[in-house]
Design brief:
It contains five helices and four strands; from the N terminus they run H-H-H-E-E-H-E-H-E. The chain is of the alpha+beta class.
Length: 104
Amino acid sequence: MISRLPLDEQLPALRTTLSHNPTLLTVLDRAAIDTFAATTCCLGIRLDPHDHWRVYAPHGLADIFNLVLRPDPVLAPREVYETKAERWQRQWPELRVLGLPETD
């Protein structure tokens, strides 16, 4: 279940979760993040050993903050992207979903 709490209220819980689950820190691997079907989902956040947040967002953060779902036309199988987009749009009706380009 996705929380609808303001981000400043979610961060303490996220910090606690990440600091008590070291495997979560290793799973947020750049190579894996780069293969996500939607560029909007290509985001990794982790807390380093010095308590500094590290953010990996190869496509930037603008689409996330603007609630735009953008497919990766190279990596996204149409069925996977469309299924996820439909589910996420039900969860967040204000989400603007961009479609995959048509193929021949």
